[in-house]
Amino acid sequence: MVAHLLWILAVYGIAALLVHIIHARHLRRNGKDTKRRMHYVLITSNHERQVEWYLRALSLYALMSGTRIRVTVLDDQSHDDTLRIVERLTPMSGIELVYGTWRSGNSSLSDTNGESGDPPIMTIDLRNPLEAIRIPYVQG
Question: Does the entry feature the keyword Transmembrane helix, yes or no (predicted)?
Fold first, then answer.
């Protein structure tokens, strides 16, 4: 009895997920997603334990919301495998992932709201632990 109920719930959940995916692809195909783009800039430093979760959360958000997401990861002199993990996740579906290095002395980055036709840019400095809550599906 319980097994049958679990199967029904699983099938219902998969069907709902497929409807969301098909709807998002339909919006993209028709060109109505011009306002549904976002660019995240993540500044990391020794975040090998968290960076995969952050990128997977953004990928899930892109899939569930139908938003096209570009993520730029800028690494500030990490002494761990942060960049190798990001490199391994580059072909992840749902997001366009670009990575590079960042020096603390470089000019500061700021958020934009996308008024000039470009997607809005959200800069998240993960060296500050409170900034991570600005990533969808990530709790402090």
Answer: yes
